[in-house]
Amino acid sequence: MHDESLFLQAFIYLAAAVVAVPISNRLGLGSVLGYLIAGVVIGPFGLHLVGQEGEDVMHFAEFGVVMLLFLVGLELQPSRLWRLRLPILGMGGLQVLATALLITALAMLLGLTWTMALAVGLILSMSSTAIGLQSLDEKGLAKTDAGQSAFSVLLFQDIAVIPILALLPLLAYEKADLGGHGPALNPWLQAVMVLGIVAGIIVGGRYLMRPVFRIVAATRLREVFTAMALLLVIGIALAMQSVGLSPALGTFVAGVVLADNEYRHELEGDIAPFKGLLLGLFFLTVGASIDFRLLIERPWLILGLVLALVVAKLGVLVALGRGFRLAWSQTLLFGFALAQGGEFAFVLFSFATKARVLPESLTAVLVAVVAFSMLLTPLLLISNDRWLQPRFASPTEEREADGIDESENPVIIAGFGRFGQVVGRLLLAHRCRITVLDHSPAQIDLLRRFGWKVFYGDAGRLDLLQAAGAAQARLLVVAIDDPDKALEIVALAQKHFPHLAILARAQDRRHAYALIRQGVSLIRRETFGSALEMGIDALRLLGVRAHRAHRIAQTFRQHDEAALQEMATIEGDDALVIARSRQLTHDLEQLLQADGSSIGADNDQAWDVVARRELSQG
Amino acid sequence: MDNANRILVLFAHPALHKSWVNRRLIRAIGDLEHVTLHDLYEAYPSFHIDVKREQALLLAHDMIVFQHPFYWYSSPAILKEWQDLVLEHGFAYGAGGTALVGKTFLSAITTGGQKEAYCRSGANRFAIRELLAPFEQTARLCGMDYLPPFVIHGTHLLREADQIDPYARAYRLLLMGLRDGTVRWDALAEGEYLNHDLDRVLTSPR
Q1: A515 lies in the same domain as A373
Q2: What is the pLDDT of residue B23?
Q3: Is the dihedral of CA B92, B98, B101, B104 positive or negative?
Q4: Chain B: residue nearest A556 by CA?
Q5: Residue A600, pLDDT score
Q6: Which of A48, A32, A4, A80 is nearest to A472 (CA)?
Q7: Percentages helix, strand, coil for chain B, rounded to the nearest 5?
Q8: Is residue A578 in some structural domain?
Q9: Residue of B27, B53, B88 to mutate for A, most A C-beta atoms under 10 A
Q10: Residue at B63 is within a domain
Q11: What are the pLDDT digits (tens) for B50-72?
Q12: Average pLDDT over residues B173-187
């Protein structure tokens, strides 16, 4: 009976998500709103399919937030943060600070105590990554000034969640039991605990996890690695709870510690689907818990607060945009994209309620306000497009060619064995940033010891390519030694990342033909270059002078590469292939022999002594 | 425009990323109709020049421009290699070598040194036209008409875009004039540099 009700619940939630999210996406409202609306529909104010047990589901779903923060941590490589330090700290820092202060002041005017007002201010300074970035992405505006600025601000907010989580318990109006089993702690002692645990996680992540990952990865069983990743996140969450701290905080720190780990992309790829589902569930439960009686009883209060929130945030953002010298059109886009409450607000409100920072009567109102402000964003962006942007659009506003996206490496090298390494070393010597994927734990271990940054992962998996930054990269070098796998990766990349220029290592002629037919334009046969070099060596030992041997080899290469392209199109018909191949070999012989003989040669004639002699006589 | 002269610019610079002036110059002419910009170091990074292709290009154009920095009183190595290989006996000179007869030849060069350095009392002891004698004679042996050179001196001192832009504009105007035949050939003969008095050389556009 119990099982049945569990399955029934799972069925209702999943069905709501599967129906509502695609519709919401179609309407340009994004997935977060889709989940929220689905939650409203199945909740007590809709079809009443879920109700009392919603609380339990919410506890479960909050684990999605824990995973989200783990992934946010994984994304925060120190080197990347350092490159973006100016916009992140400048714009992001000022946005959070100014918005928080402004909202705190407004909240105090409305009669909240300063602790509550500050908590509300901090929580509402967050914007929605899901809505803001997704709307910009969908319109292809992510690379504009506004898009980049929005990205920086959201990144700072992601980081700011952590200190806010640590700070909130200090603002409690009464002692709280955070659902943990640990002893009730003095808030200051708790702050010290945070540092202690964080130090523990850093040490463990640095020195303990690498050998563990290596052993697990060596099994080459994907599900075991997935289990390992989940175990890690759940383990940290439990450890944090046992001392009465926020699990999200712990996993975030663990993520940051592992951001430089070679198994990062694999971890990201494994956790992401769980995060997505659980976070979806979380938004569903938030939607189901929105108290519509409030809207009916006090519609003007709610609407007024929504308006105040959006206007306050918009004001700060527009001032920042102008302060950082964005054009007016970009400033408005930047402002409207981020002028809403964020999904972190739901997390932080539920945390603040439990920590006795904010009373439930207040958070119920504010959760509704945030949800409505999110609902407003797509509408604001549409009206910005329709009515405001045309006033600022200037015909001279020519976009510079897309620069290299500073936040991701421009080159991904799949396979870092004897072939990929040479490619990678050459690029690195030219100060080109590369992301390297390899699927042999032993190889990675070895390379890491030599100071190479290599990540564990199978480039044949879409999620891993994504995690490695394929959407932002410019080149994909397929340098793995498995020919069939290489073709798979090429097909995958062509399908999902058509902008990527693909460079492929071909094992032999046949593999090269297959790659050419698949439309890869840059192909190098793995042994061709070195065999040619050895051919030159042999010619020289036979007495051919070095420069001439070199030129013969170059002519040979040109001819052979042209032949390769041609043969690729006729492969399949064996008789035809053999006939054509004989003809081409014959042509090449003619060409090279002509080069070596004297008069009547069609190449290198300028160096021909006989012709010169004729001239001086004539 | 059908009787326009087709111009082939053979451009050679081994380190273009360091040459602000040459980058500006080729950008100024890159889009001109009937002008083919052929970047030799880009086309033949290992100096393996495709002789047949180069000869076909020569045949398809009426005017040949060598654009390059003036290295050691001559061209960068690849342009010398190009001459050695492409200007074959029987094609460009000697018995039956008439492929280039009647075409026009122009040198467009940049030098680090100032104009004052290129005279008897200067560090380089010879004038640019004297130092370009091998190019002039090569053109004449191939039966081509030799134009006074287009020269930009003192490139080390050209740092700002507004210092370079007048030269880039002059280069573009000159190639357009050559293409459209709006050049006063009689005014050319005595000129030391083609770009000394461009207004006098070019008739006003029709």
Answers
A1: no
A2: 92
A3: negative
A4: B48
A5: 36
A6: A80
A7: 40, 15, 45
A8: no
A9: B88
A10: yes
A11: 999 999 999 999 999 999 999 99
A12: 86
Which of A551, A603, A605 is closest, CB to CB, to B89? A605
Torsion from C-alpha of A30, A34, A36, A37, nearest 10 degrees: 130
Q: Which domain holds residue A101?
A: 2-389
**Weakly modelled stretches of chain A, pLDDT under 50:** 1, 178-183, 394-406, 597-604, 618
Residues in Cβ contact with A296 at an 8 Å cutoff, skipping those fewer than 6 apart: none
**pLDDT value at position B82?**
96
User: Least CA distance to A557: which residue of chain B?
Assistant: B48
Structure ipTM: 0.78
A340 & A371 share domain: yes
Task: Tell me, yes or no, whether A111 lies in a domain.
Answer: yes
Domain shared by A154 and A72, yes or no: yes
pLDDT score of A175: 59
**Using alpha carbons only, what angle is made at residue A574 by residues A569 and A580, rounded to the nearest 5 degrees?**
60
Q: Is residue A268 part of a domain?
A: yes
Q: What's the CA gap between A494 and A116, in Å, rounded?
A: 52
d(CA A270, CA A226): 6
Report the range of poorest mean pLDDT among A174-188, A429-443, B4-18, B119-133.
A174-188
Q: How many CA atoms does the CB half-sphere of A162 hold within 13 Å?
A: 20
Q: Are A412 and A473 in contact (CB under 8 A)?
A: yes
- Chain A nearest-CA distance from B92, in A, is 10
For residue B133, what are its two tokens?
Answer: 């004698």
Asked whether the predicted pLDDT for residue B191 surpasses 80, the reply is: no
CA distance linking residue A402 with residue A392, whole number of Å: 22
Q: Give alpha helix (H) positions in A384-519.
A: 389-392, 418-429, 441-449, 462-467, 483-496, 509-517
Q: Per residue in A129-146, pLDDT tens?
A: 777 776 777 666 766 788
Q: Which residue bears the tokens 């780990």? A: A261
User: In whole angstroms, what is the distance from residue B134 CA to residue B131 CA?
Assistant: 8
Chain B residue with minimal CA distance to A612?
Answer: B89
- B2 within domain boundaries: no
The answer to the question of residue A592 being in a domain is no
How many domains does one find in chain B?
Answer: 1
Residue B199 pLDDT > 80 = no
The residue range of the domain holding B72 is 7-201
Supply the pLDDT for residue A393: 55
Distance between CA atoms of A501 and A321, rounded to whole angstroms?
A: 34
Q: What is the torsion angle, in degrees rounded to the nearest 10, for the CA atoms of residue A54, residue A59, residue A63 and residue A64? A: 20
Q: Provide the residue count of chain A.
A: 618
Give the residue from A494, A509, A526 where a domain finishes: A526
CATH number at residue A503: 3.40.50.720
In a domain, B27, yes or no: yes
Q: Which of A389, A423, A438 is the last residue of a domain?
A: A389
pLDDT value at position B149? 94
Say how far apart CA B26 and CA B11 lie, in whole Å: 8
What residues in chain A have their Cβ under 8 A from chain B's Cβ atoms?
551, 554-555, 558, 602-608, 611-612, 614-615, 618
Q: Is B79 on the interface with A (CB under 8 A)?
A: no
Does residue A423 sit in the same domain as residue A381?
Answer: no
Cα–Cα nearest to A503, from A540, A469, A473: A473
Q: Which domain CATH number covers B123?
A: 3.40.50.360
